[in-house]
Amino acid sequence: MKFSENWLRRFVNAPLSSDELAHVLTMAGLEVEALEAAAPPFTGVVVAEVKSVDSHPNADRLKLCQVDVGEEAPLQIVCGAPNVAAGMRVPCARVGATLPGMTIREAKIRGVASCGMLCSARDLGLAEESEGLLVLPADAPVGADLRAYLELDDRIFTLKLTPNRADCLSVVGVAREVAAMTASPLDLPQPAPVPARITDALTITVAAPEACPLYCGRVIRGVNPAARTPQWMVRRLARSGLRAIHPLVDITNYVLLERGQPMHAFDCRKLSGGLTVRLAAAGERLVLLNGQDVSLAPDMLVIADAARPVALAGIMGGAETAVDETTVDVFLEAAFFDPASILGRARRLGLATDSAYRFERGVDFGATAACLEYATQLVLQICGGMPGPVTQVQGRLRARVPIRLRPERARRVLGVEVADEAMGALLKRLGLGVQQDAQGLLVTPPSYRFDLAIEEDLIEEIVRLYGYENLPARRPHTAAAMLPLPETRRDEHALREHLARRDYHEVVTYSFVDAQWENDLGRGAAVPVKNPIAAQMGVMRTTLWGGLLDCLRFNVNRRQTRVRLFELGRTFHAVEAGFEQPQRLGGIAFGPADPEQWGVVSRPVDFFDVKGDVESLFAAGEDLAFRRAEHPALHPGRCAEIFHRGRPIGWVGSLHPRWVQKYELPAAPVLFELLLAPLMTVPLPHYLEVSKFPPVRRDLAVIVDETVEAGALLAACRQAAPKQVTEIAIFDLYQGKGIDSGKKSLAFRVLMQDTRKTLTDPEVDAVIARLTQVLADRFGARLRQ
């Protein structure tokens, strides 16, 4: 929400500076995101009239101008602007004036004296580009200070409003807040009804009264098609981020910004018969003002004439009935549409309009008719014409239900003593109806405060006006007891620190994701979001990989060659009983396996590097297995499903080549994802006696089919090993000369140690024979000679 400070002070002129006003608004919950000057500083620039233009004697492209700046004698100024002409009024920087980046001095240009400078918008810092001099209105007062004439000392506020404060999506709404916060008088003139001068009217029918409880409109005939939007309105629109288009359109935009009431103007000659507010029929289409041809859904509210839909209600008008430079008869409309009937429709069509933004949050239906009268006054003032009578169709509007406020509870919640009368006075400053009885206060919200519904809302309003900074800061006093911390429970922060030590950086991404990500990377149907905040955030994620890949692309596009990321968050899955939201840990690794250094040969990270990272998350000796499997997001030959104590808990693997190409990555990253629950429980540590006797090592090399998984052999050996075996690990894999085709050689390191004696050769040989027999029986392994 952007607006001009001068515009705001027209309604409430609080005795505060701009910065103080910004502080008051922010403390009231209307965060001032930006406060900027309407124009850069410059001095010595006045309104001037070009009296004559002659050719420069020594230059073809320069002109010699006589310029009236409000003094007895005109100034001679050399100008090279292509649009300079006698009779026009333009800004003139006099000798001594300071402009952005320059100071004006008397000079000779090609041998001719020049006593000043005629200025373009770019010269004054009002625009980045300009093709000629800034042309001022013909009635601009010659000699007047330009800053004062164009109100360039104005400042522009940008508010970052929360969704519940739709009442502040207008200058009048902000003025109400300032008046309440500063106890300043609010000067809000109410437009008087404009008497009808003709009897012309359109027939209005509301076929969807629940969606449109109030619809007002009137015909105005004979408007001047050559009329131009006045400069004061153009300035205010521009400082609110809108450009002037057409006087009738500008008036509706102006009322929207000032009063918060969306409006629309139809060209009467383009309408067929009366207007009907109804739901769209299946298959109906409408070309909108922006040229977009949309297919209407049955739950979309439209305004239609006798032939077809002419506007998407509360969102955007149609192009076929829009006003233009030939319009002489206009139908002005102002309505209240129920927020539920507008919510989400614009986003579904890929639109974002000021009207939809306001109607979705709630518009003041108590001011709808008055805004139509105000717009009529502006049309007659700027464009002329003869107004007809107001046609109004009203159904059942939302009743403003009184809210019970218990002062004693409010004092308990706030922690300060505020008298009942003071609470009532604060609420009255906000325009709320307040009645006091034996049970406390009965407060009726006005029609523009859709956010006030329960007692807590009123308590919030009281503390806003009382001042958050006036609340005492009291330290809490409580008896603190140390909670038990089981040794078998792992803290999430410890998990994060562990991954950080392994060179991973944590990211936090949205749970709302692009449906295409889920189609590419997920294994189940994604849960759709009923009212997505953006088209690319239409479903709930079933995997963390989409967000991680997006972060990876962001970094790779900014020349990051080595990326390690992880995220700890929830995924969302539809089940028969409703929804499941398990917490998961996901990670991605890309680029070299080690940071660049002289002592290590660079190589790309691979499956086994990330598999090692995953294994490090579990305690030593945990029942963890990696089994070959297929996942739609992962490379078929570089993918494994992870099992913990026999239960599947996640996946690890390289990204599938088709997704590497689609997401425009220079190489395939390695990803992993695990259920968080198995990681949060660790075995209870137990004491083992440290042996005083030397360990014995034996190497066991066996030949098996190449399809046999090394992890399965390792698990079988560990299960069959007696207590004297302290470690079994694979240290070699060989296929090639000396090994039959379809076979592979795996070598195991077996460490044995006893705490009571030195092991003898027969005891060691018996252990090796036992392990060899287990591998032979279960996997057909034979010793490698």
TrEMBL record:
Entry note: cofactor: Binds 2 magnesium ions per tetramer.
Reactions mediated catalytically: tRNA(Phe) + L-phenylalanine + ATP = L-phenylalanyl-tRNA(Phe) + AMP + diphosphate + H(+)
Compartments where found: Cytoplasm
Lineage: Bacteria, Pseudomonadati, Pseudomonadota, Betaproteobacteria, Burkholderiales
Domain named B5: residues: 398-473
EC number: 6.1.1.20
HAMAP family xrefs: Phe_tRNA_synth_beta1 (MF_00283)
FDX-ACB domain mapped to chain residues: 691-784
Designated name of the protein: Phenylalanine--tRNA ligase beta subunit
Ranges for domain TRNA-binding: 39-147
Superkingdom of the organism of origin: Bacteria
A Pfam family recorded for this sequence: B3_4
Amino acids binding Mg(2+): 451, 457, 460-461
Oligomer and partners: Tetramer of two alpha and two beta subunits.
PANTHER family: PHENYLALANINE--TRNA LIGASE BETA SUBUNIT, PHENYLALANYL-TRNA SYNTHETASE BETA CHAIN AND LEUCINE-RICH REPEAT-CONTAINING PROTEIN 47
Source species: Thiobacter aerophilum
CDD domains xrefs: PheRS_beta_core, tRNA_bind_bactPheRS
Keywords: Aminoacyl-tRNA synthetase, ATP-binding, Cytoplasm, Ligase, Magnesium, Metal-binding, Nucleotide-binding, Protein biosynthesis, RNA-binding, tRNA-binding
